[in-house]
Write a structure and sequence with these properties.
Low-confidence stretches: none
Shape: globular
Strand content: 5-15%
Strand order of the largest sheet: 3-2-1-4-5-6-7-8
Mean pLDDT: 96
Largest sheet: 8 strands, mixed
Number of helices: 15
Distance between the termini: 51 Å
Oligomer: single chain
Order of helices and strands: EHEHEEHEHEHEHEHHHHHHHHH
Radius of gyration: 19 Å
Length: 325
C-alpha cells in the first residue's frame, strides 16, 4: 500500500510521520522545493515541527506521484487548487481523505462538495478531524479522532490505515458534522483568545466556549449535521482543545487581537496560516444563508472584516438582552 500526503505543514508532516510508523510506502509532498530539500537534508521539518526526526521509511518529494491512498493536508484556501492538480492522478476508485479544517472559500461550501464538483460525483471521499495538535501526534502521545466517509466500506478501510495504539480512530458517516465542527471551532478559538487578551478571566472564556458550542449546534441543525457528532471528538472535543491551549494558532492570534495588535501583524508574528481568519468569513456567510443566530461568530467577523474593536465586540455580547438558555 502506498500513501501520499499533500502538504508539509505541521499537521501534514505529523500525519506523514504517524503513517510511516505503520506503513512502508509513505511519501510527503510539498510544492515548496526549498522546503522539501531542507527536510531531505535534515530529516526533520525544522520550520514547522522541529526536533522530531523522520522515520527512515518516510520519503519526500516536490513532484506529484500516484499513490493508492492520498491525504490532503493543505489549508482550506488551497484545497480547490490541490484537487485540480490531483485530478489527473485519480482513478474512479481512488482513495482520498483530507485533514484540512475549513470551508471552500470560492463557493462557500463544505470541502466534500468541492471535491465532488472537481473530481466527479462518483468519487468516494473521507475526512479526518478531532482534537489534535500536530506535535503531540508526531510525538506519539495518546490521541483520539473521528474519521467520516460517504462510503462505509471505504471509511472503515481508512480507519484501519490510521488506527494505532496511540492514535484511536472512531468512524462516522456524518461528513457534514465532522467538517462543520472542525471549521467552527477555529472561529470560537479566536473569540476565546480575544477574551484572554482583554484579560476577561476564566469565567468569560468558559462562557464563550459553552455559548459557542450552542452556536455550532444551531448551525449544525440547519445543515443537517448530527447532534452527537458535534458533541463528539470532532465538535466539542476539538473546540475545547483549540480554545484552551496556546498550541492553538487561532487562540494565540485572538490573544494578540485582544492586546491591540492588528490582524495582519498578529498573523505575521505567528508565521503560519491562521485557518480561523478565512473560516470566520465562511461560517458567518453560512449562518446568514441559513438564518442562524451566531452572535459570537458575528462579533469575530466584525473584528476581522469591519474594523470593530475587540473591546466593543465584548460590549456588544454583554449588552445583549437576557434570554432563556
Amino acid at each position: 500500500m502506498s500513501f501520499l500526503i499533500l502538504g508539509a505543514g505541521s499537521w501534514g508532516t505529523a500525519i506523514a510521520i504517524h503513517l510511516s510508523r505503520l506503513h512502508s510506502q509513505v511519501t510527503l509532498w510539498d510544492r515548496n522545493t526549498a522546503h522539501i530539500a531542507a527536510m531531505k537534508k535534515s530529516r526533520e521539518n525544522q520550520r514547522y515541527l522541529a526536533d522530531i526526526i523522520f522515520p527512515d521509511s518516510l520519503m519526500l518529494t516536490e513532484s506529484f506521484i500516484k499513490a493508492e491512498y492520498m491525504i490532503i493536508a493543505v489549508p482550506s484556501h488551497a484545497f480547490r487548487e490541490i484537487l485540480i492538480k490531483l485530478k489527473p492522478y485519480c482513478s474512479a476508485d481512488q482513495k482520498i481523505i483530507w485533514i484540512t479544517k475549513g470551508l471552500d472559500p470560492e463557493n462557500h461550501e463544505f470541502l466534500d462538495q468541492a471535491a465532488k464538483q472537481i473530481l466527479g460525483e462518483n468519487i468516494s471521499c473521507a475526512v479526518l478531524s478531532g482534537p489534535t495538535f500536530a506535535k503531540e501526534v508526531a510525538q506519539e502521545l495518546p490521541t483520539a479522532v473521528t474519521l467520516a466517509a460517504d462510503n462505509k466500506i471505504l471509511g472503515e478501510n481508512w480507519v484501519k490505515q490510521f488506527h494505532s495504539p496511540n492514535f484511536r480512530v472512531y468512524f462516522s458517516e456524518d461528513m457534514t458534522g465532522v467538517q462543520l465542527g472542525g471549521a467552527v471551532k477555529n472561529v470560537l478559538a479566536i473569540a476565546v483568545g480575544i477574551a484572554e487578551g482583554l484579560k476577561c478571566g476564566a469565567n468569560a472564556q468558559a462562557a464563550l466556549i459553552t455559548r459557542g458550542l450552542a452556536e455550532m449546534m444551531r448551525l449544525g441543525a440547519a445543515c443537517h449535521a448530527r447532534p452527537e457528532t458535534l458533541m463528539g471528538l470532532s465538535g466539542a472535543g476539538d473546540l475545547i482543545l483549540t480554545c484552551t491551549n496556546n498550541q492553538s494558532r487561532n487562540r494565540r492570534f485572538g490573544i494578540q487581537l485582544g492586546q491591540g495588535i492588528s490582524p495582519e501583524a498578529a498573523e505575521k508574528s505567528i508565521g503560519q496560516v491562521v485557518e480561523g481568519i478565512q473560516t470566520t468569513r465562511e461560517i458567518y456567510l453560512l449562518s446568514q444563508r441559513y438564518g442562524v443566530e451566531m452572535p459570537i461568530t458575528q462579533q469575530v467577523y466584525q473584528v476581522l472584516y469591519e474594523n470593530l474593536s475587540p473591546q466593543q465586540a465584548l460590549k456588544n455580547l454583554l449588552m445583549r438582552e437576557p434570554k432563556q438558555e
